[in-house]
């Protein structure tokens, strides 16, 4: 079983690339953001709690997302691999993921990191707001808070994974095709 993390700031192109990776490699794409948005649409208790945090641009509690990831992994024992998108987002999530994969006899095979400078992150999120109608994409203050949350809580994961030797960086400000070719090179190793 292979486990990959698609990493990067909001708007770096993770969702777009994930679709192509799934088409070519048949991995199961797990986006914690998508899972949380489904909970909100379904009106579940979890969704109600998450909605407020997401609309403010804050993270939902670690144990909530870790629980969703564990369920997805145990529900899908027969697939070739997993592609995590938007997870982990904190050091605590990354540590829990490591011990969870260890329990399942696996490890994070590679962290594929799409880089993008803040100015472009901001522009891309605003552009996506027009297409996807996401509440957390519409408002300037919320976007800025999401970018700040990324720097504060999620960016430290770069050193965490560099220390483990499985961190791979790709320039995100490139065409979809080029970025995908670079990702494919890593997945084909
Ligand atoms: P995304 O679609 O990945 O940008 O996620 C949208 C929002 O869902 C984020 O701004 C967070 O509020 C929440 N979220 C998604 N993934 C996580 C995670 N791994 N940990 C905490 N909150 C998350």
Question: How does this model look, in words?
Answer:
The structure is a single chain. This protein is of the alpha/beta class and 189 residues long. 60% of the residues lie in helices and 14% in strands. It has a single domain (2-182), classed as P-loop containing nucleotide triphosphate hydrolases (Rossmann fold), CATH 3.40.50.300. It has a 5-stranded parallel β-sheet with strand order 2-3-1-4-5, sandwiched between helices. The longest helix is centred in the middle third of the chain and has 15 residues, at 118-132. The chain is globular and about 40 Å long. Bound molecules: adenosine monophosphate. Adenosine monophosphate binds next to helix 2 and helix 3.
CATH class, named Alpha Beta
Q: Architecture, CATH level 2?
A: 3-Layer(aba) Sandwich
Shape: globular
Helix and strand content put the structural class at alpha/beta
- Domains (count): 1
Tell me the distance between the termini: 15 Å
Helical residue percent band: 55-70%
Ligands, ions, cofactors:
adenosine monophosphate
Keywords:
189 residues; alpha/beta; Rossmann fold; five-stranded parallel β-sheet; binds adenosine monophosphate
Brief summary:
With 189 residues, the protein is α/β, with parallel strands linked by helices. It has nine helices and five strands.
Break the fold down into its secondary structure elements and pairings.
Blueprint: E1 2-7, H1 14-25, E2 28-31, H2 32-42, H3 45-56, H4 62-75, E3 81-85, H5 91-103, E4 110-115, H6 118-132, H7 140-154, H8 156-164, E5 167-171, H9 176-187
Helix pairs in contact: 1-9, 2-3, 4-5
The structure holds adenosine monophosphate (AMP).
């Amino acid at each position: 079983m292979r486990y990959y993390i698609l990493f990067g700031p909001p708007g770096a192109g993770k969702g777009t690339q994930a679709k192509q990776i799934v088409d070519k490699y048949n991995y199961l794409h797990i986006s914690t953001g998508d899972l949380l948005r489904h909970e909100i649409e379904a009106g579940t208790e979890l969704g109600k709690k998450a909605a407020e945090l997401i609309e403010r641009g804050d993270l939902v509690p670690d144990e909530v997302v870790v629980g969703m990831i564990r369920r997805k992994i145990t529900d899908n024992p027969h697939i070739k691999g997993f592609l995590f998108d938007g997870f982990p987002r904190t050091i605590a999530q990354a540590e829990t993921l490591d011990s969870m994969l260890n329990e399942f006899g696996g490890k994070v095979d590679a962290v594929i990191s799409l880089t993008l400078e803040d100015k472009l992150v901001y522009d891309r999120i605003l552009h996506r707001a027009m297409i996807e109608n996401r509440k957390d994409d519409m408002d300037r203050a919320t976007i800025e808070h999401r970018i700040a949350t990324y720097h504060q809580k999620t960016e430290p994961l770069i050193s965490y994974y560099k220390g483990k030797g499985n961190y791979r960086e790709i320039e995100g400000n490139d065409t979809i095709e080029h970025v995908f070719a670079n990702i494919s090179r890593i997945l084909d190793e």
